[in-house]
Structures are given as structure tokens and as C-alpha cells.
Backbone:
């Protein structure tokens, strides 16, 4: 029974993984990747690690892949064309890497089979939520906290990148969404050391603030 | 042999639970139309059957016989896949809820009135719910229609934003219970003759959950994904016949499951106050009263949904995002902080 389920989900995982690489449409690849994650989660459940399985679905399938799908949708990535000519060196590199991977897997399987220590108990509480939580907050507290600080840094970094203040000259700053300009740039009659800056959301608004009547204003055209 | 009987029993349980839930969902649609009509001073559908009692089946027949239109430039495979994902994700969460306590059933012996019991039931619910986003996002994209795409994106953004507040609002209950297993959580609320509901200890968490759950299911006042006045019908604009019915079904099943989760975590699940005074625990009638109590609480939440739809106007999108990220999320974090602090200093449970 368990073997049948293992074969089912393992085959599903490998099939989806092949589809990720083989699909021409990037969105199909993304969906196949979600399939890989979900079948991996099923395998985790069978390995008595339900917590990891749930986190796998929530974090990878539910959060990260949503972002990937969003990006593909919003950028409207076209179907990948046949690009044989470029990056030809990748083919031999892929062959070599695949050979290394196969060798590694064989090596591991060989030594696991040879090792005298066989897993004894089929029922363990290592994968349960409470035991994972307990060890995360006692013996692995430092790595756990360091990881959380790393994630916090990523968030703060993304925020600062998104709303960076770009310095052009003294007293001038450009913020996305809001344009701040020194007065003398807009009004040549203003003295250069005029400290007053204009904050506005668009050129029309700036013109209105400075009492500049645009001669190309469509409403004043005859 | 035992395992085969077990599988058969589970299969029967799943069939019974799904049938009952789908029936209730069908009648929720009817109730919504009748109650909304009452709120707006109309009559609503009252022609098919007694007082409109057969209307859901008439609607279903109509959905089956309508022409199934597929837009010319749609991405066909994903266009077909999207409603399936939405419905499956909605239905899959149903297996973890305890509908009643362990009950002595004639001929079968003592059985737990739930389908599956496992360690991470709550995380399973959150995980499956988060997969449901794909149904909507992919539907919007594959229809090749700008209104659908806008609706799909809005809906996904909204669901992702409010999923955070939803998950955090549940942590208070998890801290109190010390487990993710829904059945243990319900059994912990059996104190004081079944009146020790967690809403008494987690009122703030309950309110946050309720708001976030309404946003998660894209219902009024958070129904921006299908804001008719702006987006025609949102992500399912191009869907017709049975595929539209699947989205419709998924929405109502989602309403039902978030109501079940609210009942299980905050309103004591199947605990009916003082039912154990009249019936002995574990007896058939105690189980019956518990199941009826559970369904009654869930139906109360469904009525609340309909009531809100008849009462409230719709949020603007920036208001929605500001409310979710700048108000609901910090309040949920505050709730976790307060709960943890109180639990450290006082022995509440």
C-alpha cells in the first residue's frame, strides 16, 4: 500500500519535474513546478514528517510560486523560441553535471545499503510540530534567530530599494510617485539660491502652482 | 482486512460529509437570494417548489444545459484547469473538521464523527486554502480578457494580503491549545459543561479572523475581485455553464469551510453548552445534538455573510490594502503578544 503510494507520488514528482524543463510556455512550467512541490509534500507525509509537508505547501506552493506566476502573468512572457544557436556550451556542461549527479546518487545509495545502521522504528515523533518547535527554540535557537534576521534584512532591503531617494543635486530629491523640483528649474526668473521647492504629482500641478499658463493648454485653444 | 474496512468506512464518511455539505451549500445560495430579497424589500425566487425549495436544483439543471463557451484566444488547458483547482482546493479542506464527538452509533460501535485526524490539521487547512489562489489567478489570466486579468490579480493580491492576518489571528488559539490538531482544540473547549469556548479568551483574535475570512472568500464588503461596476464579473467574466457553476460552488464552499474553522476554533466546535447535563457523553443522542449544534453555528456564520452583503457597501482597493496591512496585521501581532504574555504569567488553561 505504502509502496504503491510512494511510486505514485514519486512518479508524479519526476513527471512534473520533467515537464518544468520541457514546457515551452513559462506558465505551464510554473504550474508543473507547483505539481512537483505538492507531490514532494505528499512524500514528506509518508515519511512521517507532516509539519514539513504542510510548510512545503504553504511556503513554496502557496506563497513563492504565486509570486512567480504573478510575474509571468504581468510581464506576459512569450513562449520561448527555439534558441539552438546561442549557449551551445550548455549541452556538454549539462551532460557532465548529470553524470556527476548520477555518480553521487549511486555512491549514496551504495553506502546507505552497506551501512550496518538500519532505521528501526517506523513510527517516530521527530516530524511532529511540537518536537520541531521544541528543538527550534532550544538547541537550534541561534540558527533560527539568524535566519529570521536574514529574512528581516531581505524585507528591509526590498523596501529601501523600492522607495530609494535619488540625490541629483542639493535640495532636489526624486521619490517615485511624487516629484520634487527646485523652483529655479521651473521658473528661470527665480533666484538660484531660492530655497523653496515645489512638491507636486505632475507637470500640470507644478504649472498651476507656479501660475504658468500653458499656451498649449487644449482648453484654451480656439 | 481491517485496513480495507477502514478505507471503506472513510469513503462512506467522505461521501456523507460531502453530500451534506454540498446540500447545505446549495441551500445557502437559495437562502442568500431570499434573505437579500427580504432585506431589499423584494420577494426573491419563490416559485420552484414550496417557497422556492427546489430552486437550487433548477439552477443546477440550467447550468448543465447552458452552452459552454470557450473564448477563442484563451489558453485552453489552463482555462479548463482553473475551475477544477478552485473547487478541489475548496473541497479538500473539509476532511479535517470534527463534526461531532466520538459517538456510539447503532450497529457500528463507537466512531469519531470526523473524517481524518492528524497532527497538522490547521496547517493543512491553511496550505490547501493558499493553493486555492491559483484557481482564481489562472482563471483571470487564461481567459485573455483584461477585466478577467484585473479581477484575478486583485483577488490574488487580496487573498495573499489577508492570509497573513488570518494565519496570525489563529496563533492566539494555537498558543492556548498548544496543538494544531483540530479535534484536541475542540475537546479543550469542553470545559464548563461545553461552554469554555475560546472566543471568551480570544475575542480580538476572533474579530480579526472574521474580517480576514470575509476578505479571503472575496465577499462583501471585500468583493473587489468581482466588482460588477468596474470589472464586469472579475476573474470569471469569460466562464459560462458548468465551469462558472464550479467557481460559484467554490466560493460558497469556501464560505462554508471558513465558517467551520471559525466554529471549530472560537465557538467550541461541536460543544453545545450543558448538553452533557441531559445526555451522557458518548451516547448517540449526545452525538446528534453536538452535530446539530455544530451545523447551527456554521449556519449562523453563513447568515452573517448574507446579512453583511445586504448591509455594507464595497471597500475601495487602496482602503482594502491599507486596512489589511496597516491595521489588521499589527493588531493580529498585538494579539499574539498579549496572549503570549498572559500565558507566561497566568495559568489560563
Residues:
Amino acid at each position: 500500500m505504502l509502496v504503491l503510494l510512494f511510486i505514485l507520488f514519486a512518479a508524479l514528482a519526476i513527471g512534473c519535474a520533467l515537464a518544468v524543463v520541457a514546457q515551452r510556455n513559462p506558465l505551464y512550467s510554473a504550474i508543473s513546478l507547483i505539481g512537483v512541490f505538492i507531490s514532494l509534500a505528499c512524500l514528506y507525509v509518508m515519511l512521517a514528517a507532516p509539519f514539513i509537508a504542510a510548510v512545503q505547501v504553504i511556503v513554496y506552493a502557496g506563497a513563492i510560486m504565486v509570486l512567480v506566476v504573478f510575474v509571468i502573468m504581468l510581464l506576459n512572457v512569450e513562449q520561448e523560441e527555439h534558441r539552438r544557436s546561442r549557449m551551445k556550451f550548455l549541452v556538454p556542461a549539462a551532460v557532465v553535471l548529470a553524470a556527476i549527479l548520477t555518480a553521487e546518487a549511486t555512491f549514496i545509495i551504495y553506502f546507505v545499503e552497506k551501512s550496518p545502521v538500519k532505521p528501526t522504528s517506523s513510527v517516530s515523533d521527530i516530524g511532529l510540530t511540537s518536537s520541531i518547535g521544541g528543538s527550534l527554540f532550544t538547541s537550534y535557537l541561534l540558527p533560527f534567530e539568524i535566519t529570521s534576521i536574514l529574512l528581516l534584512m531581505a524585507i528591509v532591503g526590498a523596501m529601501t530599494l523600492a522607495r530609494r531617494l535619488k540625490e541629483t543635486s542639493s535640495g532636489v530629491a526624486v521619490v517615485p510617485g511624487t516629484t520634487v523640483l527646485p523652483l529655479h528649474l521651473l521658473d528661470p526668473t527665480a533666484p538660484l539660491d531660492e530655497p523653496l521647492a515645489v512638491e507636486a504629482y505632475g507637470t500640470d500641478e507644478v504649472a498651476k502652482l507656479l501660475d504658468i499658463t500653458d499656451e498649449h493648454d487644449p482648453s484654451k485653444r480656439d | 482486512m481491517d485496513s480495507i474496512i477502514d478505507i471503506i468506512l472513510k469513503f462512506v464518511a467522505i461521501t456523507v460529509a460531502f453530500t451534506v455539505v454540498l446540500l447545505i451549500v446549495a441551500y445557502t445560495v437559495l437562502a442568500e437570494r431570499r434573505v437579500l430579497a427580504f432585506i431589499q424589500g423584494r420577494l426573491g425566487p419563490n416559485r420552484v417548489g414550496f417557497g422556492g425549495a427546489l430552486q437550487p436544483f433548477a439552477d443546477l439543471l440550467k447550468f448543465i444545459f447552458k452552452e459552454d463557451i470557450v473564448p477563442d484566444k484563451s489558453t485552453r488547458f489552463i482555462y479548463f484547469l482553473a475551475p477544477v483547482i478552485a473547487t478541489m482546493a475548496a473541497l479538500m479542506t473539509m476532511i479535517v473538521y470534527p463534526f461531532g464527538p466520538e459517538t456510539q452509533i447503532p450497529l457500528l460501535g463507537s466512531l469519531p464523527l470526523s473524517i481524518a485526524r492528524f497532527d497538522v490539521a490547521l496547517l493543512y487547512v491553511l496550505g490547501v486554502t493558499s493553493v486555492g489562489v491559483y484557481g482564481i489567478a489562472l482563471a483571470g489570466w487564461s481567459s485573455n480578457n483584461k477585466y478577467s486579468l484585473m479581477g484575478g490579480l486583485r483577488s490574488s493580491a487580496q487573498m495573499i494580503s489577508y492570509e497573513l492576518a488570518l494565519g496570525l489571528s489563529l496563533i492566539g488559539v494555537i498558543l492556548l491549545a498548544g496543538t494544531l490538531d483540530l479535534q484536541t482544540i475542540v475537546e479543550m473547549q469542553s470545559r464548563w459543561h461545553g461552554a469554555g469556548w475560546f472566543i471568551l479568551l480570544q475575542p480580538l483574535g476572533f474579530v480579526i479572523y472574521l474580517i480576514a475570512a470575509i476578505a479571503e472568500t472575496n465577499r462583501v464588503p471585500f468583493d473587489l475581485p468581482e466588482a460588477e461596476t468596474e470589472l464586469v464579473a472579475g476573474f470569471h467574466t469569460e466562464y459560462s455553464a458548468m465551469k462558472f457553476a464550479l467557481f460559484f460552488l467554490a466560493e460558497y464552499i469556501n464560505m462554508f469551510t471558513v465558517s467551520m474553522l471559525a466554529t471549530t476554533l472560537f465557538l467550541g466546535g461541536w460543544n453545545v453548552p450543558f448538553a452533557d447535563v441531559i445526555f451522557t457523553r458518548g451516547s448517540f443522542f449526545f452525538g446528534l445534538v453536538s452535530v446539530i449544534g455544530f451545523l447551527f453555528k456554521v449556519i449562523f456564520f453563513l447568515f452573517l455573510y448574507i446579512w453583511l452583503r445586504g448591509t455594507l457597501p464595497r471597500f475601495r482597493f487602496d482602503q482594502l490594502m491599507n486596512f489589511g496591512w496597516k491595521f489588521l496585521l499589527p493588531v493580529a501581532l498585538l494579539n499574539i503578544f498579549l496572549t503570549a504574555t498572559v500565558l507566561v504569567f497566568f495559568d489560563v488553561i
Summary: The interface with chain A takes residues 3, 75, 77-78, 81, 118-120, 123-124, 126-128, 130-131, 133-134, 137-138, 141, 149, 152-153, 156, 160, 163, 178-180 of chain B (CB under 8 Å). Chain B has a mean pLDDT of 85. Residues 69 and 240 of chain B are 6 Å apart (CA to CA).
